[in-house]
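A protein record pairs a chain with a discrete description of its three-dimensional fold. The following entry can be read in just this way:
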Amino acid sequence: IAAEVPRAIGLDTDFTPYPNQRAQDIAFLSHCLGLVHPRPDSHRKPVPVFVGVAESVLLGPDLCLADPRFRDLAAFVGFPNVEESKSRMSIVGWLRVRYQQDDSAETREWICPSLAAAVTQHRTPPPATWISKIVRSIDPFDFGDYADKTFTIDYGPLETLEDSTISAMDIDHLDSNYFHDKYVFIGRGKLSHDTGDRYPIPGRRGDAHAGVYVHACAAYTLLRGVLFTPTKPGSLLLDVIVALPVILIVAAIRVRYRR
């Protein structure tokens, strides 16, 4: 895949540095680092690669992947810690982590991007000042050592993404340069049936969906433009706008019949 120079590659796999798999992870992450920073004599173009971290994000950028060399590969693959009814409607854009370096008492901060934000390198722009009173595109949540910025996901391309999934066995049968200039997400996909990597999607019927599709839809949202959510004053204004024509029509009918 990397040889065809995609725009970026995101791996929806939690690379928490467990001791029993550290050697394999170090070897794989070293390979990923070589794709990001190829040797000059290799004549290969660099390809941005990002791998998932979840709970280990609390260790800070130098230790979340066990070695400081890999800090720029890390991307958060968790979900907002909010009530279940909202937990799949939004996803973290950037996570502000408060952590302690080594044994010092000094607390530091690290802004870790989500997998979608890292792969697309897109930020969620705030709305214009005048309209920010009635709509918002970023919802702040603060829970313990995390403080994140979330945005609402557009699940419009979900079925298309699932139908266009490519398995590892099919890669050799694809046209050359199939992945060129594309954003590539790698995860369990349809193989996630017997794992915990499946999530119910609001508004979608049927089985739960693999997490990699959630991240892909989040990336689609960032590339197309984030969805806006009304603020409390905005919701009130929308209620007035919707109700006003009905009130005016009823009032006009009553005035007419009174005459």
About this structure: The mean pLDDT is 80.
